[in-house]
Amino acid sequence: MLTARAAWRRLEPVHGMIYFVPEARRRYADLGLSVRAGYFTSRSAAFGRASAELIISTFYNFNPDVVRQAVDGAWDATTPEQVLDARYAAAGEALRRAGIHELPGLDEVLALTRRAAEAACAHAQGRPLFAAHAALPWPEEPVLQLWHAQTLLREFRGDGHVACLLSEGVGGLEALLLHAATGEVPVDFLKASRAWPEEEWAGTQERLRERGLLDGDSLSPEGVRLRRHIEDRTDRLALPAYAALGDADCERLAELASAFGHAVVEAGLLKLG
């Protein structure tokens, strides 16, 4: 389980950079979309003309009012097909800028990651974002195939994570606050990107203190336990994808993935703002 988590985390920057790179913002703007509309429509375009309510449900931790405002009129300006084309084009441009296409282990990493992603397709039930992306055709270019494979693995894991949060009675804003309390991501970034009103943020934070999950702004021991429990369950739900590789190939993917994640980070593709 730890090896599978390492494989996913080390390669995740290859997918995650799409939410930060200027290539994506430019292409969405060319379609008449704001930055927020570009994010919500591009990640949900695999559904087709996704409604705000579908996005709110599957993305889980965003302020619903902001989603509705961002998506309002977006599908009048463009189509899901155009947004998907823009997203893939931006991903390819950004990853080539990072030199991913020149890394010597590309073929092997792609083969292993695609095997895991395709294995996940046998376990799509209850994973709507994953299933929608899994129905998309595979790109022809190796760099984009790698991005698509890691996108599938990200959404496969993410849908499982939402299921774990629901089973533990942790709502979207509560999940966001517990994440913020770890210190892993700047609180200001989470507040700006998820756009919850300050009074709702503060009120939910106080309720988490009353539940014994927060001690001030930090996780309490019970909060640490709950977070660890949820992350461990999320890892277990993600295992069907990586189990298809077997222990040796999963370890090999974890080993090779570091160079790809580092290349994305060193090229500045994950810079906030």
Automatic annotation (TrEMBL):
Which Pfam family is one of those matched by this entry? Answer: HTH_67
**Domain of life where this protein originates:** Bacteria
UniProt protein name: SalK
Species this protein is from: Streptomyces tibetensis
Taxonomic lineage: Bacteria, Bacillati, Actinomycetota, Actinomycetes, Kitasatosporales
